[in-house]
Amino acid sequence: MMKLNSVIVTSLSLFVIVSATVGDDEDSAIDKKSNDQIGAAEELRAQGEKDAALKIYEELTLTGSSPEIVAESAVKAALLFSEKGDSKMAVQFFQKVFDSSSAPPEWKALAQYGLIQQFFQSKNYADVIRTFKKPVSVALPSNTRSTMLIMVGDSYRFEGDSDAARRMYNRVRDKYGENADIGTLVQKKLDQMNTEDNGDREQD
Description:
Blueprint: H1 11-22, H2 32-46, H3 50-63, H4 67-83, H5 87-98, H6 105-121, H7 125-132, H8 142-158, H9 162-176, H10 180-203
């Protein structure tokens, strides 16, 4: 049985990734009111008032005065839906950003990760692969990027495409293998695939 839980980033952790990846950009804050609303939603979320925070985020996806505000609100709404266990709504809000022609690339990259995570957890492996094949212009932090690529590799494997899975695992190992946990994990996956292949040849 394949195990990936130890490296899947939770939606709560992704809030941290959002802050680290995007940060605060006062120059893009066209409407102070909208930014104040986002700040208020953040405080509510931190206090455990997720429904109240979600209401603000959802409203801002419709009324936000800039593409940055709309994208940020949609991603954070998706994260809260994920925390509430509503994968369908999480996908809907991530997809809104990922498909948007006006969303900033940082938010599109985060939305791609969110979609891949949701699809992987619901075992929609073909959708994981389909989403990954749509390129984004901004790379996520290395630990997050490697986690996403492992999910893609596992999806290829579950879909029966062993060659593509190997290529993805090798890509992760070559680029991110200096991280001992990641390097060990992908090497175990490659070794397991080699063992399975040897077993199949022996049966033939």
